[in-house]
Amino acid sequence: MPNPAAGRFGRLVWLWLSLVVLVLDQATKVYFEGALSLYQRIEVIPDYFSWTLAYNTGAAFSFLADSSGWQRWLFALIALVVSAVLVVWLKRLGRGEIWLAVALALVLGGALGNLYDRIVLGHVVDFILVHWQNRWYFPAFNLADSAITVGAVMLALDMFKTKKSGEPVHD
Predict the structure, then answer these.
(1) Is the distance from CB of 135 to CB of 69 less than 8 angstroms?
(2) Which of 39, 41, 50, 121 sits 20 to 30 Å CA-CA off 89?
(3) What pTM, to 2 d.p., does this model score?
(4) pLDDT digits 0-9 by tens, 126-167
């Protein structure tokens, strides 16, 4: 059922943020693919942060990366479905739901950035490596992953902004 407070286009105006995430994500991936060779590492903050070029054929944390290739299309399909749901959700948001609109736009932009890689390149390009004294490594990631993570945290926080009646708190 459409939200009467949403207006004709809801919060679709926030698709500009999804586009910015998508463009920045792709631009940084092109830059690092040109600047680094596969698995080359440039320490930015010694013992903590490096640039590195890695390809991920799986999902988050390289889940299913060792599979035979079917996972590429499964993850692409999931990203397409999630993206469609996010656009519909944005359209149905009310005027006061800006926080939620930003969260959804960030997740959408990140999902589209990684979807493009998966469909066109066959893998997701990662280049950010967080580590601790060369003993502990967080899996390499990219700007799309960062946007998805920030958006997901914002979505989780949005649940706590809700009144006990279930009505959203309007800013």
Answers:
(1) no
(2) 121
(3) 0.83
(4) 999 999 987 888 889 999 999 999 999 999 999 887 654 455
